[in-house]
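U., I forgot to send this yesterday:
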Amino acid sequence: MGSPGQILQAHRDSLLLWTKPNPAPLLRWLRDDGVLSHAQYLSLLERSPSNAVAAALEAVRGREEASRGFLEVLREVQGYYCEELQAWAERHCGGAVPDRTAEPAPVCEEEKKKEKGSFAKIFKSKCKGFKVPQEKKGAIPDSKLKPRLSVKQSNLRVPLMAHKKTLLNQTERLTSHSEGGGMVSNSHSHIEIRYTDLFVTEDNEEFESSQHEYFSLASRRARIYAHQDCQRIQPCHLLSKQRATGCPPKRVKVKGIAGIGKSVAMQRIVYEWALGKTMRDFVCVFDLRFRELNLVTGPVSLSGLLGSRFRYLAPVLPQLLGSTGSLLFILDGLDEFKHRLDWDAPERAIGVDSEVPVSELVVALVKGSLLPEVSVILTSRPSTDAPKRFFQRCCVVLGFEEAQVEEYTSKFFKDTPVASRVYGYIVGNDSLFVLSFIPLYCYIICTALAEFFTGGRENGHGGEGGDRDGSQSLELNPPRTVSEVYYCYLYTAIKHHALRGTSNSSVSKSEVFSIVRAQLTSLGKLAYENLLRSKIMFDRADLESFGLEPREVRSTFLSQILVSVEEEKVEMFAFFHLTVQEHLAALYCAVNLSSPEHILGGLEFWCFGQPLPSTAPPLLLAPDFRSDQTRVENLQMFTRFFMGLVRARLGNQLTGMEPVPLDKEDLLSQLGVWFKTQFKGRELSNQTALNLLHCLTELHMEEVAKAVAPEIKSLNLFKMKLSVVDCAALYYVLRFSPHRLEELNLGYSNIGNRGLRRLGPILHRCESLYLRYNCLDRDAAILESAILKSGDCQVKKLFMCGNSLGSEGVRELWLALEENSTVEELYLDITGITEGGTENMVNCLSKNSALKTLTLVGNEIGEAGKDRLRELRRLRPGLRVIGNFVDDLGLLQAYLDWVEELRADRDQMDSVRNVDALQSVLKGLRVAGAHGEGQNVQKAKELETKILQLLETPT
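Result:
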């Protein structure tokens, strides 16, 4: 019969023919059994199917042990292939297929490294929600247990194997109809190569926000990053055991904004299950997308729905549905479901053959009134939420961490030096860095930057100092702002289509845009009018009404922008991401508004919902639009894109679209007046004020910013969770102000050290500076100390309460106050000061004559620290020092008010817990209560009681 190597060599051509349709199972099992290294495996995935297996055979040739391993793997995976290969395996691979379902699956080297890394240790110690299965010596992991329903039954094995092979073909490439937009063109598009783990945490709060979902996510990430209540997980761990019950959850909800990776994570689950690598306790997985469920008309039964969706399973569905404990349903994209779900409707008996509306079928499956024993994973955007009471585990996907952005970038680019330069550029640019934590944005950014870092342009990196007017910025420098990134992405897609079949790569941007001007105009009109209607799904008639032919969508650059969802004879279309729709809508308006008056009228309409004047151009309104159909909060990203594209238009970068020429000086002058009026004459909400600052940043015209900045006398962004890019927008505008800022309130904004550093150059001009509960530490104290030492410092009140400055950081502040002559009030409550933090306090502050109020409550300064406070009071009789809660009745009342705020605002409560502030206050109150009497003591006891009640209140 020959040796293993001889057998493989003799039958090489037949093996190549039999495995060509789908080499994935063979290659993956070869990797996991150690026959191929991880590097070899990834390299093979980039090859064509036949070449991949040929290369694998070449890799084991001449090594008998490896050849023997190859044959063993063939025996294990023969069910994935044709009957000829199965018969061959019976003869040449050593007998029957072994039962591997009860053995631990091999862990790849990449995963072993992750387990031993610092992140894994942090997450194991910090995790409060997920319980990732830990393999005990000799134990069989839960995910590898033998299925309750034997897949070896002859009537099930064939259709289930057909199911797995179909799923593998559908999931091995990164295509995401709901959030990813078509086949990724990069050769690294195989899911094993491109997939990057996500940042996921338990979801312990209800979603109530009127913000654009991107801004809400930025707020959420800032808060969760702060107290590390998070865990990176693999998708299959969504169904791992819960700490509270010790049992896997039956119903899991996965929430996250568009593009954050929910659908790709579900794709990974299906792919791994179909390979036989994870979740083996499930005999069958049914993946259903709500976009496809939209196409179901009339009543339908679950068995009928599954029979039409998975036809090869139809004969065995009764048997499968009869063993429901071993089934998993994945319901992906609830936000795209067009039918209303009535979660409060009375339950009624529904069986697998009961014909009901598809919306009722979904509710019954989620609630468990239909097939209560099956497992269900539901994904949705935050704006379309299912009640948490029906789920045992609720998760929120927060995208990438910084390490995963680097990992993704390295996977996107084949050239390691190029990947390193691109990642360095992203990290060095606040706008791009904050966007990059969303996986789809990461793809858009990498695609846009590829034009500059792989095409000989990487020497011009742009920056704050170069190309001030921006007229050539996109020709010479990589994009810096959000709108520039999207503009470059769009141009890349258009250029590759427009120049297809020609070797002329020197065609100008205007020529490229002119080639597709008509299509872009139609596409932009579709995007804008339906953005006003909050509509994201379009049928064939919708496209045709805007002059777009469905066949063009499939064959032109439009296929990279519009995604088609086809089920039988019905086809629907959607922009592959909400922000792409917003950007194209903004491009449509930026090109077609013909005068400054029209542009200002549009801004009034988009930013404030003001009715359009009768002279406004018709294009600003959709024909059947009603003002209550939209909320201005949802147009904030659109307005930022619009201002960035106005800048592009003024820089003559949209000439191929043939816009009507604008008088640059006149427009900029009128924009300056308009923005001044908003800050001077309007009561702006926090979010609106921040959005206007971002609009100015995207416009990036100094003459406008210089006109507006003097009108900003104070800025209150209290409780606005700000990202680094928000801080960059504040800095961009406020740096042009010639005077001091009366107040900058960033309390509970979670800006962190990075955000504070971004604001650093303007903080010396803030008379009252509120930085309470901002996740600041020693480095922030050092930065603030440098600000206080500067000769032009104008800070009079500085609030640093609730930050982890520590003794070392506070000592730096004392040294700064030795030189400072402006600060009159300094609040350092609950900042982690110990006895060591008071060592140089008396010496430094005794030389300061400006400071009038100093609070230090909630810090454990010890007896030596208290003695130093007494000495400071003696040396500085004019300085009011509050080191104890009972020292000041007004302070006690302020803390009582604070506790009431916490009771009403759970987000703020999260920030407080981050530094264990409430416990610090309790400790201080108990010490104070033991040494006092009178009204102050009674007020202290009242405060103690309210804090205890608050801590006992369930989240």
